[in-house]
Amino acid sequence: MREQRCAGAILAVFLLLGLRVQAAPPAGGAGIRLEKAAPAAAATTASAFTLVVPYLTPSPAIDGELSDLKIPPVVELGKSRLFLGWDPDDLYVGVFVSDGSLVSTSQSDTTSTDAAILTVGNAELFLSSSRGNRPIYKRFKAGELERNLYHRRHGPEGSEVAVQRAEEKNEVAYELKVPWLTLSGALPAAEAGLPFRFRLRDRISDVVKDSEFVPAGAAGRPLVLVLGPPALGTIMARLAAGKDVVLPGQDPEVHVSFHRADAGPLSAVQVTLDGAPVFAGDLTLEANRTLFRLKGLSLPAGLHRLEVVLGGKPAAHLSLVALDVPAAQAKLTALRKRLEAWPARRWSAPAGRSLARAQRLAADVEANLGARLPTSMLAARVLADLDDLEKAVAQLEAGHPAYEGRTGLLRCAYRSKLDGSLQPYSLYVPKGGAAGAPKPLLVVLSDRNEDESACFEQTDLAAVAEKRGTIVLAPHGRGLEAIYRGPAALDVEEAIADVRELNAVDASRIGIAGVEAGGTAALELALQRPDLFRGVGAVNAEPDQVAAWTHEWRKEPVQWLAGVLDSRSALAHTRNATRMALYLAYQSGNAQLKEQATKLARSLKDEKARYQITELAAGAGALASFWEPMMAFLDAAPPVDTGGKLTFLTTRLSRNSAWWTRIDAVRAVGFPASIQAERSSEGLFKVEVENTTALSLSVEGTSSKTGSNVEVGIDAGQVQAPVGPDGWVRLHQEGSKWAAGPMVPATSPRKSPAVEGPIEQAFVSPFLFVYGDTGPDAAQCESAARESARIWEQRFNGQAEARAESKVTTGDESARNLILFATPASSKRLPELLSSVAVRVTTAGVQVGKSRFEGKVIGIQVVAPNPRRPDRYAVAVTGNTPAALKLLVGHDWRKPDYIVVDPNYREDSPSSVMGAGSFDMTWQP
């Protein structure tokens, strides 16, 4: 982070003076005319603290380096500095903070980020920081973003932000660029001072502290920004509207201001509306800032562009929208009724599945109509989306999928099987290729805090996809913080299934790629599903999660967490890469990423995988040199040959199959289990296994038929095994020898692909929050369950229900996992569940097997098969007092089968856990 020096900071309190203007009569324009506008109400020393914002030329880049703004701090307060600047198109804001009272020095998880909150007029912009010393780039969306509790943002599209945080130095720098065009609703009509507010936020766990950024001596007085004049000889024009969204026929109250540092005549001024001249004439300027009001402007319904031309060259423009909001709402209501009346038939049918796309479009229109800051961009989108929705509804009513035949960038959605929620995704469909011909598919995962549109908005991904004829899917990932784990990993698979049903996809050419946290997830998902993904591309990925944790937290993770991290790491699954193309890139100057890439490369080389590692330049433009070579590398990969010989490794029974192999049972869950298998065309098998006690082999593609016997050589022995009706051969271990057929069903619950743990797995199939509702603890149990459901909804962009235990039916238990918040006195199910895994809760504490944990308030969260429905999960959240339940409200994927905590526990601090671990194959400690 480069230090900034205070040099020539402009800081003044003054009154805006009236300006004398002479204007020639208009040359035409159907009654539209320019009239001198009175100056806005003056800002006085008693009512406001005024900051003069310097004019910038040339326009700076938003790249995470405040020195590139090329302006001194406008306000400097000890270790905090505020930078402001403007040009004809944008307002620029920079903030540098190095202060222990404002920047968290303690390591925290992704829900505990610091932030800066900027308010200009009625537009609020939320800037969040990130751990590590690299900048994050994202664009702000309009209206409230309700998908995630920790990153709600108000503001216009088109803004850019870079946040750079160096925790080692306790420094955070924020850079923000906001287009005037999209802030027009926040601008005063006569260019008076802009109401301004800046807050610094520090979030530690659930405690939030806001610190106002107020210059010394200005307490109780509002901050006001006044635009400083451009350089001598510079002449420019700006447009601002009192309202850039109005009813049809309404005057938007447009002002035109001319800026010139030296007085002099200005001639050949033209104002156009949608390309047609509405005013032309000569004007004379007599001051630095000269203001006119455009009179007689009445807009018909629709989107409009107003432009000022100086000397034949465009000088300023403004988007205006005439929108009849009640009429738009009425049209939306009518279209939704048509959607509800349309028979969806089966969800698996293409037309029925595409209904979710139309429902997402309707939800977007509703959100934009109700936005707190209805900018012209939002209003224009409402008009376009209403027309689009009408076409989609007509297609559905005709029995065709919504968006059928559409190309380009599409906003899509599907209904999740997890909770029935509407999950969005972005899809790019290229124009080229024969109609109906299968195309390759690339799945792109964005970085933490990015939504599904980020990679399309910030890079040339769409252009590269068009050039190469590749369909690109960008899943939302069920929340900006979910980082494609647990329910978010399920979202990727569900989105792929939706795209494959509605588009012609070449199943043998599906790739996955990602950036930063998305790159790490892309590597992990690809190497856990080698039968689905042909190749993977990743930028700044961290394939070794234990090493990444150690670097970020400056200490080794505790043993139980190391096991959880390692079981997910790409580095633990490189044996699955032998039939995959891997393109890896990291930015220069990052030694930690280079070390991880080198470590992965050594492992890939040992597995004889096809890979390439590239070093990218540092800075914001790095991705520009990634997509084209990465996609070319994946396209050049030869077809996957799964015929003769393959290797498959897994650390999870729920991800237990690839191609023609399946691991049905293991000796120990959570450790690598693998099959190395060779298959002949006649269906003869030779197999070597690791940590595997039961397996299945498919004869599909061989000459072996159902009912015949095949020979399997396994662990230096030979087994004759029959081919079952489904075309699979099954083997299991009996002592130290292998035998034909499946394992004998266990008389007591055993870990299986359906129910294996850890706790997170209970949240990747349908679930129900349940609370004990008997006795004096019932109210506290209900409160904890409902709060956990609320947090889950906000963090994972979904739907969650909380229900009293007495209202749970047998149908609920057969269809859903139960997440039970209860004390032993409030629930009948809880004692059954705890005894099945040798857990006891007493007033003194908690006992897990032979391990005892004592204290006044001890909580435990544990996963096990539901005793009343062993093919479904049950999760108990309990403790020796009702207060203990509050310790485990929320959701964190970093948990094994059980975790024991006391009041010192923090979700972002694994070392604060009293005890944690996994059960054995029989669900015992």
Protein described:
The two termini are 49 Å apart. The chain is globular and about 100 Å long. It has an eight-stranded mixed sheet, sandwiched between helices. Strands 42-41-43-48-47-49-50 form a seven-stranded mixed sheet, with helices on both faces. It is α+β, with helices and mostly antiparallel strands and 925 residues long. It is 19% helix and 34% strand.
Concise synopsis of the structure shown:
The protein has 925 residues and is of the alpha+beta class.
Query: Could you tell me how far the N terminus lies from the C terminus, measured between alpha carbons in angstroms?
Result: 49 Å
Report the major sheet: 8 strands, mixed
Mean pLDDT: 83
Number of helices: 15
Question: Spans of 5+ residues with little confidence (pLDDT < 50)?
Answer: 1-29, 102-112, 141-154
In terms of DSSP E residues, the strand content is: 25-35%
The gyration radius over C-alpha positions equals: 31 Å
Which of globular, elongated, flat, extended, rod-shaped describes the shape?
globular
Summarize the amount of helix as a percent range.
10-25%
Q: What is the number of beta strands? A: 50
What is the structural class?
A: alpha+beta
Oligomer: single chain
Strand order of the largest sheet: 23-24-26-25-27-28-29-30
Write the layout of secondary structure elements.
Blueprint: E1 22-23, E2 33-36, E3 49-53, E4 75-77, E5 80-86, E6 90-97, E7 115-120, E8 123-128, E9 136-139, E10 160-166, E11 171-179, E12 194-204, E13 207-212, E14 223-227, E15 235-241, E16 245-246, E17 254-260, E18 264-273, E19 276-285, E20 289-295, E21 302-310, E22 313-322, H1 325-341, H2 350-353, H3 355-369, H4 376-397, E23 408-415, E24 422-429, E25 439-445, H5 454-458, H6 461-468, E26 471-475, H7 487-502, E27 505-515, H8 517-528, E28 535-539, H9 545-553, H10 559-568, E29 581-587, H11 591-606, E30 610-616, H12 627-635, E31 645-650, E32 657-658, E33 661-666, E34 673-679, E35 685-690, E36 692-698, E37 709-714, E38 717-722, E39 728-734, E40 737-740, E41 767-771, H13 778-796, E42 802-804, H14 810-815, E43 817-821, H15 829-836, E44 839-842, E45 845-848, E46 851-854, E47 859-866, E48 869-879, E49 898-901, E50 915-917
Parallel strand pairs: 3-14, 16-22, 25-26, 25-27, 27-28, 28-29, 29-30, 35-37, 41-42, 41-43, 43-48
Antiparallel strand pairs: 1-19, 2-20, 4-5, 5-6, 6-11, 7-8, 7-12, 9-10, 10-11, 12-13, 12-14, 15-17, 17-20, 18-19, 18-21, 21-22, 23-24, 24-26, 31-34, 32-33, 33-36, 34-35, 36-39, 37-38, 39-40, 44-45, 45-46, 47-48, 47-49, 49-50
